[in-house]
Amino acid sequence: MKNAIHTAVICLTVLIASTILAAGLGNVIKEKRTVSVRGLAEREVAADMAVWKLSFSLGANTLPELQKKIISQTEVVTDFLKSYGLSDQDYAVQAPEITDTSVELYIDKSRQTFVYVAKQAVLVRSGKVDAVKLASSKTVELVGKGISVNSDYDSKVKYDFNGLNQIKPEMIALATRNAREAAEQFARDSHSKVGKIQSASQGLFSIEDAAPGLEELKNVRVVTTVVYSLAD
Fold first, then answer.
1. 49, 164 in Cβ contact below 8 A?
2. How many CA atoms lie within 13 A of 203 on its CB side?
3. CB-based contact 140:80 (threshold 8 Å)
4. Are the beta carbons of 155 and 200 closer than 8 angstroms?
5. Beta strand 217-231 with 193-202: parallel, antiparallel or unpaired?
6. Radius of gyration (Cα) for the chain, nearest Å?
7. pTM of the entire structure?
8. Dihedral angle at the C-alpha atoms of 152, 121, 116, 149, nearest 10 degrees?
9. pLDDT digits (tens, 9 = 90+) for 103-160
10. How far apart are alpha carbons 196 and 116 in whole angstroms?
């Protein structure tokens, strides 16, 4: 009889403990119900820096003659830049690259025009983006003045946007709001309510050309990932 009572007490205790444990686990599970959502923010901005390597080629048969040509043609180029609103602070004249063709083994001597060939560059780096863009589209004027302007890939104007820090806070806030809206939509569909943020992570900002041919306009993009708690 005592053993039966003892066994019954043990069973009852286990049952009560199991009920309490199940209830506790249920509360824990409810507290850990979450939803992970992403919020996107995009903005189109104008480039605030233009970099342009304006280079040209020239030749001569003596070094003194080559020097005079380099000085003269560089002056024509810098005057051209100034005519479009660029100042001395907006560009720097780089050292010329000079090749002595008489010692080049793979040059066809029968087609050799000059003994010395030089490549001169003026590096433009300016916040006057519109002025640089306009000047770069008018280099035919230099051709008309006897300047052999290079048109390779390195001579293409590069546009940059350096004002990211000024728009970061607003874009992150917008991405977070968009994430909240996504979480609320999920909650409505599941008959729940959005609770507090459990964790959040910010993706990297990306800056890309707005479109081919519109390199002076940039598309800034960021994605945030936010985990919210859910409640019934």
1. no
2. 20
3. no
4. no
5. antiparallel
6. 35
7. 0.75
8. 50
9. 776 666 656 788 999 999 999 999 999 999 999 999 999 999 999 999 888 899 999 9
10. 73
